[in-house]
Amino acid sequence: MTGGVPMVAGARPFQQFVLKVHSRCDLACDHCYVYRHADQSWRHQPRAMTPQTVRTTASRIAEHAEAHRLHRVRVVLHGGEPLLAGRDRLRLVARELRSALSGVAELDLRMQTNGLRLDEAWCALLVEERIVTGISLDGDRISNDRHRVRTDGSGSYDDVVRAVRLLGAPEHRPVFAGLLCTVDVANDPAAVYRALVQLRPPRIDFLLPHATWDRPPHRPHGPTDYADWLITIFDIWNSEGCPVPIRMFDSIRASAAGRAASTEVLGLGSPDLVVVETNGAIEQADWLKTVGQGAAATGYHVATDSFDVAAAHPGFLARATGVGGMSGQCRRCRVVTVCGGGLYGHRYRTVNGFDNPSVYCADLLRLITHVRRVDGPRRHHRLAETDFETLAFGGGDADVVGRLADAQISLRRSLLAHLHKAGALTGEAWRSLLQEDAAVVDAVLAQPYIRAWAVQCCEALAAGRELPDTGRLAEMALAAAIGSKRRLDLTVPLRSGAVQLPGLGRMTVSDKGVLAAGELPLTVEDGRMRGFERAITFEPLRQVTADGISVGLEDTDPYRDCHTWPSAHRLSEDEFRRWQELFAEAWDILRRDHQRYAQDLAIGLRSITPLAPVPGRRVSDTSRHAFGAVAIALPELPEDLALLLIHEFQHAKLGALLDMYDLVAPAHDRLYQVAWRPGPRSVESALQGAYAHLAVADVWRRRKGGEAAEQARYWQAAAVAALDDIVAGGGLTVLGLRFADGMRTAAGGDPVLERW
Ligand code: SF4
Question: Nearest-CA neighbor of 638 among 699, 568, 556?
Answer without folding.
Answer: 699
